[in-house]
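Q: Could you fold this chain for me?
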Amino acid sequence: TPVVIVEAPDTSAYDRALAQVADKVADELSISSPELALTIATAVENASAEFDLNPWLIVSLIRIESYGNPTAVSKVGALGLTQIMPVTGKEIAGDLHLAEYDLFDPATNVRMGAYYLGQLLERFEGNERAALAAYNYGPTAVARMLRNGEPIPKVYAGKILQTLASL
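A: Sure. Below is the predicted structure, expressed as structure tokens.
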């Protein structure tokens, strides 16, 4: 009987594509470290697939939230690339069954931020402007505004959507 040797799948095409994405992420976020750009690109790729999100929406969110700084801390205490508040991080960790997590770890932060954005998109029935406003102002506040017929804040969501359109 002839022996059939099965070759391993060619991952070089995927690696090349990921490297191109990492280069674009590095340019978009002004990241000088190729390793960090690749880490973020990989995290975005994984999170977008896991939560069915546009990867460039996640990159746009990161650009506006932290400009690619994984150790960013906002004046109100939001942490990491996607600027997650510690209390929100604890809730997300529970949803994702994470016993331990580090909001300054790029892969963890991107996954948690993407999960949260996906939850907001679901809550606001795919309305990106409302979901993005809720990411920044809180879902309860945005839901109240919509319920009361008030306009939702447009600047934050507009910056992200404008960045997304330019990619």
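A (continued): The helical segments are 12-29, 34-51, 55-65, 86-95, 106-123, 128-137, 139-147, 155-166.
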